[in-house]
Amino acid sequence: MNNCILCQDDGGHLVWRGDDARVVLVDSPDLPGYCRVVWNRHIAEMSELSRVEREILLALVDVVEFAVRRVMRPQKINLASLGNQVPHLHWHVIPRFADDPYFPDSIWSSKHRDTIDTVLKSRRELAKGLPEAIRSGIADLA
Ligand SMILES: [Zn+2]
User: Fold this and answer.
1) Mean per-residue pLDDT of the chain
2) Which of 19, 62, 82, 111 stands the most exposed, by the fewest C-beta atoms within 10 Å?
3) Terminal CA-to-CA distance of the chain, rounded, Å?
4) What is the model's pTM?
């Protein structure tokens, strides 16, 4: 067995798991609604997927993006697949707001500000609706 963290752990709060991939909510207090779509098998690159697998993964990313837009009403969605630190295929789906700590830079850049507490709390409340919205969107794919 390898020591890959995404082979050993879900990588966040599990929202949904299928045969090929899973969706998790990332425990990120500053960025409520931040999700990841993680391929279950340990591979590093999109081009290692078959065409059908790629369609499955991108359909899941699409469903999660749509759910995050609908539930969180962000200014922008950031989609990212980096894998430099954890070379196990996964996509980040991140709702972005003009007052989030890193905006307009990527969430991996240095922090510019703290979001006002009441705003953050209301976004955390909104994010509670995400698991249901994501599961419902995935159910509609079938
Ligand atoms: Zn892995």
Assistant:
1) 97
2) 19
3) 33
4) 0.96
